[in-house]
Design goal:
By secondary structure, this protein is an alpha+beta fold. The chain is built from six helices and ten strands; from the N terminus they run E-H-H-E-E-E-H-E-H-E-E-H-H-E-E-E. It has a seven-stranded mixed beta sheet. Strands 8-9-10 form a three-stranded antiparallel beta sheet, with no helix packed on it. It is globular, with a radius of gyration of 17 Å.
């Protein structure tokens, strides 16, 4: 389904060059965009033969009027037009949902009512429920939160090493992967997943 696509998960803060590359995915770059990236807890990027084609993050810079006390927001989801309708957005959303739940937080997502493709996905999914609607800058928006069913879904997923091996297999380039044990955490150390040269640590529930 995602042949030749490289899904990279990183909790690392970004430098100016990385932000400049990510900015190419988004039609609007403003102060709010910067705030979300300043407060990121996880960044998911997708590359095709080294070209950045999609990204989304988990952050805790929440302005939406949610009643969830331990909320983190799934935000800044973007996919290049020629890669849409391939399931990439849904897969990136599920990766972020899993991370947030395993971190002990409650994921929320804020969707503009004028984006029917996005809110229709959340309305259909058993892993999300609508918390409320609100207006911001004259635009109607919906807040979705992950219910208990999402936690059950995360608990049913394969073990981390198995799942991460599948993610790494999406990249067409050979790589060396070694498993490092840090009781009680098991971490997977991989060679850089993109040309910017960052090393990334991935594991099932916590990110180092």
């Amino acid at each position: 389904m995602f042949e030749n696509l490289n899904f990279s998960l990183s909790p690392l803060r970004l430098d100016s060059a990385q932000l400049a590359e990510l900015a190419l995915l988004y039609p609007v770059i403003d102060q709010r965009w910067q705030q979300k990236f300043d407060r990121l807890e996880l960044l998911v990027t997708v590359r095709d033969q080294g070209t950045l084609i999609a990204a989304g993050l988990v952050h805790d810079s929440i302005l939406a009027p949610t009643e969830v006390m331990d909320a983190v927001e799934l935000g800044c989801m973007a996919v290049r037009p020629e890669y849409r309708r391939r399931g990439i957005r849904q897969h990136v959303t599920n990766l972020r949902l899993e991370f947030a739940v395993r971190s002990g937080k409650t994921p929320i997502s804020v969707i503009d009512a004028q984006n029917p493709a996005s809110w229709a996905f959340y309305e259909r999914s058993d892993l999300w429920e609508r918390e409320r609607s609100f207006e911001q800058d004259g635009r109607l928006k919906f807040i979705y939160r992950a219910p208990q069913a999402a936690r059950g879904w995360v608990d049913s997923l394969p073990q981390a090493a198995e799942r991460e091996a599948r993610i790494l297999s999406y990249t067409p380039r050979p790589r060396t992967v070694r498993l490092v044990a840090h009781p009680p955490i098991r971490a997977l150390v991989a060679e850089p997943l993109h040309p910017l040269g960052e090393r990334e640590l991935l594991h099932a529930g916590r990110w180092v």
